[in-house]
Amino acid sequence: MARGHEASGWGGNGRGGSVARVVEALRSDGPSSQAALARRTRLSPATINNIVKELRGEGAAEVRRVNGRESVVSLVSSHGAVISVQVNVTSLHAAVFDFAHRARHDVTIPLREAESEGGSPEAVIDMVRSLVADAGLGTADVTGLAVGMQAPIARPTGVVTSWARLQLPRWKDVVIADRLGGELGVPVVVENDANLAALAEWTWGAGQGTDTFLYVLCSERVGGGLILEGRIHHGGDGLAGEIGHMVLEQGGPVCFCGNRGCLTTFVAERPILAALEAAGGATGSLAGVIDAARGGDPASSRVLFEAGRHLGRAFANAAKLVAPSVIAVGGLLGSAGSLVFGGLDSSVEINSLRTVAPSLSVEVARLGADATLLGGVAAAMDHLGNGLSALPEWMKATGPARSFTS
């Protein structure tokens, strides 16, 4: 049942062509009138009306009147549950989204230092089973599982790519979708975490309504995801969008991927902390650096400004190749706002690019740390042949996740 390394998650959604076109239009454009759907899909009004009735009968769409004469159609879901898992080097995080009861249940497992590097497949399987039971659900209630890995996933094998295996050693040579799907008995999609975050931001956040969207995650590590016409773009080997390993300086610091001078070696947490330590700074985390800069610390402000300038160089290079309409910055550096964007906007490369591409927009991502988990839901809904035109409040993280010690 596990089919995790196809181009858009589980692959095709199984619907007829006309219905699929309507679903895709609602997924990409959000709530729309039936007249707008007819124009977008080039289907007749009568066909649109019949499809909307079919979707409503399945509980996959709702029609809401916005004034006395006009109504809009939205994709919804009212049955089943989707589980989204985030596998980080130092923690595991999962959430079950119960559409039947409009409820979300989270769990986080911080990994002890001796058990870090992403835990193990067995740890994820145990976590998912426990979460389903704690939510009062059975395995038959779960329609899909999405897993976001803090590492690139190679195609067509579906394993963590070779140069990233030292980061997640217990996942070496594991065909993740097959391993988890075989144990749990549900369809599984496996993606790089930044790809899922990009999909969430395209669906409900900063990239909504764009045809070409680049998302960059900047926190402990740097990752990226590229959305083209509503789909994660993987490229031939699954590494498309890995902007963190774009080489900015040939003689720069050595990166864990084996190259020198990657973007990661300038704007991830460790190099930023190292730059501050060299200047006599004493902050223990990237969040601490941001707090210090907001409090007026000049050294912290400087390293964040310079991180922004490095991002500007990388974004300009990427934009020349894929010409995105929007680039969104997520993670802690995105949350730093003007402390980073001041350097980004002042970079020579970005200013030069904007003279030839004035419509390019560089924005702060909107979904925060929740983006990867929500992106897993978006991938699962796509597999089910429907989606969510708008993000319900109950699906958003409202407080600290329930935690266990591994």
UniProtKB/TrEMBL annotation:
InterPro entries tied to this protein: ATPase_NBD, ROK, WH-like_DNA-bd_sf, WH_DNA-bd_sf
Protein origin, superkingdom: Bacteria
Similarity annotation: Belongs to the ROK (NagC/XylR) family.
Protein name: ROK family transcriptional regulator
Highest classification ranks of the organism: Bacteria, Bacillati, Actinomycetota, Actinomycetes, Pseudonocardiales
